[in-house]
Specification:
By secondary structure, the protein is an alpha+beta fold. The chain has a single domain (2-78), classed as Phosphoribosylformylglycinamidine synthase subunit PurS (Mth169, Chain: A, 2-Layer Sandwich), CATH 3.30.1280. It is 35% helix and 28% strand. The termini are close together.
Length: 80
């Protein structure tokens, strides 16, 4: 089963990389960009199993390695 973990900075955390991309887009002529936030996507292939158990396992992975819970939030999407 394929799972996707989407990691984003918490809203209250400044995103200097996102600000740099927003400014660069403006200098390239892309108007109307109000804000940019940079995150990451982690795709994981797992053996099939109980969806609740997989969700719990992925949350543990995200809490311990994939995301920094102090400054980042994450979302888990299980494939079919």
């Amino acid at each position: 089963m394929k799972a996707t973990v989407i990691v984003r900075l918490k809203r209250e955390v400044l995103d200097p990389q996102g600000d740099a991309v927003r400014r660069a887009l403006g200098t390239m002529g892309f108007t109307g960009v109000g804000g940019v936030r940079i995150g990451k996507i982690v795709e994981i292939e797992l053996a099939a199993g109980d969806r609740a158990a997989l969700q719990e396992k992925l949350a543990k992975m995200a809490d311990e390695l994939l995301a920094n819970p102090v400054i980042e939030d994450y979302e888990i999407v299980l494939g079919s």
